[in-house]
Design brief:
Blueprint: E1 2-3, H1 5-11, H2 17-26, H3 33-41, H4 49-59, H5 63-66, E2 67-68
Antiparallel strand pairs: 1-2
Length: 115
Amino acid sequence: MKWNLRMVAAQRDLWRPTEVLAAFQQVGFNPSLSKVAALWSGTPVTVRLDDLDKMCAALSCTVADLLQAEPLAAGQAAPECGQRAVGAEEQPSAGPVRPVPRGRRGAGPRSLPPS
């Protein structure tokens, strides 16, 4: 998840992280300026749930307004697109697909670890 604080703050006419910090302090949320700047830039930051409620109260928004889902990368597919486990064979089965372990390349006994 990515923070969407800049757009929500702009809707409330707050244009700088220091203005957002002042709005947070009015509702009793006292984060450091560096934390507010990280939220402002969209950097992933850990926030407690009760502090998230205070942020929403200060900005008159919902949690869904503050958080923005990151889009999938171009090469990634959604899990519903028929991805299979590594090593699974193509078999029409009613149950879940389970991975099959690869065989060892050398059929001989394993060597001992170095002493």
